[in-house]
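Suppose you are handed a protein chain with no further information: no name, no annotation, nothing but its sequence. What can you learn? This example shows the usual starting point.
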Amino acid sequence: MSALVLLHGWGLSHRVWAPLLAALPGHAMLTPDLPGHGDAPRAGPRLADWSDAVAAGLPKGCTLAGWSLGALLALDIARRHPDKVARLILTGASPRFTATDDWPCALAADTLRDFRTAFAAEPDATQRRFVALQALGDHARRNVTQTLTAALTPADTAHREALADGLALLADTDLRPILPAIAQPVRLLHGARDALMPVAAAEHLADALPHARLSIFADSGHAPFLSRPDDFATLVEGARHD
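A reasonable first move is to predict its three-dimensional structure. Written in structure tokens, the prediction is:
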């Protein structure tokens, strides 16, 4: 079976995967930090810079599982480095995180703009707000908040520029045009109560990707792998055999 690689979301680190790793014992898994997060060096400011940096450490033919910003990277890696990716598992995913006139199923543009402005002035407080948004609506909100907070990459001088780059990627990236070119099978996992990224974004992905299936967690927010790790692990196992 191919290696399972887990890509976390903005502002966090590989530590966020601990509950899922416990639910998937005995599997070959890699949990790299995103560029400029955790212990990983900063890449350039473009999505391609981040994708190339992550892809360099991937084994060929892996199952690439991305969450939130990690899902954007996973899609871009699958397109630009198809030999590295046999299948995709995307959680809390969207091809575009910022709403436009022709893309309403996303965060309002002024919301992300405010996050970027706030992060420049008060990075620690902004990260806490982002954690609260990711846990909102989840039946296990308190536990999700605690786990996310413990997994944060500190917004110190060593990481702040890379974290700002990540917010810019969330604000500016639009991968809708590349979706028909994603040839790998894709399993989409999404929380019905996701307050950061509406289910409609995952439904769009399910329609636009050539080989995609969507499963929805009725009582979860943006991080169902934290609130329902055992159920999430079962679906991951199934996706690896698709």
